[in-house]
User: What shape does this take?
Amino acid sequence: MSGSVILNRNNDFRRIYSKGISITNPALVTYFMKNRAGICRIGITTSKKIGNAVERNKSKRLVRAAFFEVNKEYGKYLTGYDFIFVCRVKTRYKKSTDIKTVMISQLQSAGIIPKP
Assistant: This one.
């Protein structure tokens, strides 16, 4: 993922959960917050409600692939933000193109990506 860095510190996740803005969908929850680093940072989480480790990792891969496609198209708008994508149970039944559509609509409703 060119132009993006992975979030993996617990205090980053807690900061975005508490101070960030969230947008929900039955397949995906997106938390976002501006950062001072000037780069795009992402984190992906899943819970045990989704299923076993194989299903959780599949959900993470779907979200990661969808974000990679969104970042290709709208990368210049995503710089300067931290994102956390929380997978839901319905995520594992979707394709990455469906997740990409959900992700774009969430980012458009948040005003990060311009509407067409």
